[in-house]
Specification:
Layout lengths: L2 E8 L4 E8 L3 E2 L34 E6 L4 E3 L2 E9 L4 E8 L2 E7 L2 E7 L3 E11 L4 E10 L5 H6 L23 E5 L18 E8 L8 E7 L6 E10 L11 H4 L2 E10 L7 E10 L2 E10 L5 E6 L4 E8 L6 E11 L5 E8 L2 E9 L2 E2 L4 E9 L7 E12 L1
Parallel strand pairs: 1-3, 5-11
Antiparallel strand pairs: 1-2, 4-6, 6-9, 7-8, 7-10, 10-11, 12-15, 13-14, 14-26, 15-25, 16-21, 16-26, 17-18, 17-25, 18-19, 18-24, 19-20, 21-22, 22-23
């Protein structure tokens, strides 16, 4: 029996709806500085001796913590990003939590993951220069869990259940992903494209050991000769043609909150037009596409997807991933009790931004839950890779 698969691709430059005939029914695409001080020297009388200089010779290292943000709510695996500076050089940096040493590294920068228990914590990031002088920056964080402040703050209404302590789907970088090629100007899925191009070179590899957090990351890559061409990857988690088909159609309708939790690594974010992370839910004949695009070319900003308008909505929230470092992204969304989409929040490297935008679903005959990842080519179709790791989906 011939059926149709509807792919809705939301591109940074235009909207695409692609319909192709295959043997599955699927609608799964969404989409320290300081001020200088001058002093005037006083010339002493000829019969006196000038006083010796009292300028201090020891200056403590300056420590800047980028993540997590002070007084923020974080998940149990916390990414710490910090740097230090000193005129005589930094020998090492260290992190202590609740007066207990947790991490030490040689050099002037830190980018590491630490596992913390639920509840509030006092953190101190310390730098030691080459002469043994130290400087530090203190901060406080609260790890969310059952009854924590983050679950309460992100909930759209009260009362609401707390997020689960474990993901419904974990290590999805190891799951089955389907790859697609999207070419301008129409961005229809290219049925005759090969991974080697030439218009779009696109491929992915799983089980990559370096760079990796888990020891088995997924690397995605695009290049080619056609500017603004995109690579797209989708994995089906629940429902039609998924590992868990939910034959009684009882699980997917019960889901109202979802969290897409992922780490990604980019060598040069400036080579990308955009990268996109989507959560898709299809229940009760309605399509809920929570599309989130990190627009790197022309704004470094998060956009979210307007379902009925089939267009992107600027959020005003910055998206500035770090180069040559693991970036931790947490996206939280809600399907409201009256079946509307609620874009709740985006947290990048510990910096949480509340989106709080509502949207309306569209019609579909697809059933289930999927997630997408997409990376877009820029004006010169610069070649670049993105590594994805520790991909988890929470729902409740």
């Amino acid at each position: 029996m011939n059926t149709r698969e509807i792919f809705q691709h939301r591109h940074a430059r235009q909207v695409i709806t692609i319909a192709i005939g295959i043997t599955a029914s699927l609608a799964m695409f969404g989409c320290g500085g300081g001020s200088a001080q001058s002093r005037m020297a006083t010339v002493p009388p000829s019969n006196t001796t000038a006083a010796p200089s009292t300028t201090p010779t020891t200056v403590a290292p300056a420590v800047t913590v980028t993540a997590p943000v002070n007084n923020s709510n974080v998940d149990p695996t916390v990414q710490f990003v910090a740097s230090a500076s000193s005129k005589i050089g930094i020998a090492s940096m260290a992190i202590s939590v609740d007066n207990r040493s947790m991490f030490t590294v040689a050099g002037s920068s830190v980018n590491t993951l630490l596992n913390l228990t639920s509840g509030p914590h006092a953190v101190v990031v310390t730098a030691t220069d080459t002469k043994g002088n130290t400087g530090s920056t203190p901060l406080r964080v609260s790890v969310w869990g059952s009854g924590s402040s983050q679950s309460q703050a992100s909930a759209p209404s009260a009362p609401a259940p707390s997020p689960p302590s474990h993901p419904a789907f974990s290590d999805l970088q190891k799951a089955h992903w389907t790859q697609y090629s999207l070419l301008p100007p129409g961005y229809a899925i290219c049925g005759n494209c090969t991974p080697n191009g030439p218009q779009l070179v696109v491929n992915f590899q799983q089980g990559v050991a370096n760079p990796s957090l888990s020891g088995a990351a997924m690397q995605t890559y695009i290049a080619g000769s056609e500017p603004y061409s995109d690579g797209f990857w989708n994995t089906r988690l629940l429902g039609d043609f998924a590992p868990n088909p939910d034959p009684g159609h009882t699980i997917a309708p019960s889901i109202h909150h979802l969290i897409y939790d992922v780490y990604f690594y980019m060598q040069n974010p400036g080579a990308s037009q955009a990268i996109e992370f989507d959560i898709n839910q299809f229940v009760n004949g309605k399509s809920f596409i929570w599309g989130h695009e990190c627009r790197l070319e022309g704004g470094y900003q998060w956009d979210t997807w307007n379902n009925p308008g089939q267009t992107w909505v600027p959020s005003g929230v910055p998206c500035k991933p770090q180069a040559n470092a693991w970036n931790h992204l947490v996206i939280e969304v809600e399907r409201t009790s009256d079946d509307h989409l609620h874009f709740v929040s985006i947290t990048l490297n510990g910096n949480k931004s509340v989106i709080d935008r509502y949207d309306t679903p569209t019609a579909t005959n697809w059933y289930g839950v999927t997630i997408n990842y997409q990376q877009d080519g820029d004006y010169a179709q610069h070649a670049y890779s993105v590594w994805l790791d520790k991909i988890n989906l929470f729902y409740w």
